[in-house]
Design a protein that fits this description.
mainly alpha
Length: 100
């Protein structure tokens, strides 16, 4: 497997070390998984009360931060952390509005 990756190269290593790029990655990743979780919450009976699925979507950003830190792309990781705070605030707002 490592030989294949060495031949192919790492496609994400060519990303610019820019905080805006990290913000985009950090917002798109939870939004994509969050839309799947939202669909499951509203169209299945098993996941009807599983709001913590949305937290799992935000927690995926931690894996992105570790990955980009290993590539020495600190500004991308900072952008992802900023997006994580924005997504966590959105989840907090969602839970508060759900209680009202």
């Amino acid at each position: 497997m490592a030989v294949i990756l060495d031949r192919m190269g790492n496609p994400l290593s060519s990303i610019k070390n820019n905080a805006w790029t990290g913000l985009t990655i950090g917002l798109c990743s939870p939004l994509l998984l969050g839309s799947i979780a939202w669909y499951l919450m509203h169209h299945t009976t098993v996941f009807r009360k599983a709001d913590l699925l949305l937290i799992g979507c935000v927690a995926l950003n931690l894996a992105w931060v570790k990955y980009f830190n290993n590539l020495n792309k600190e500004n991308v990781a900072r952008g992802i952390v900023s997006a994580t705070f924005l997504c966590a605030f959105a989840f907090f707002f969602y839970k508060i509005m759900q209680e009202i």
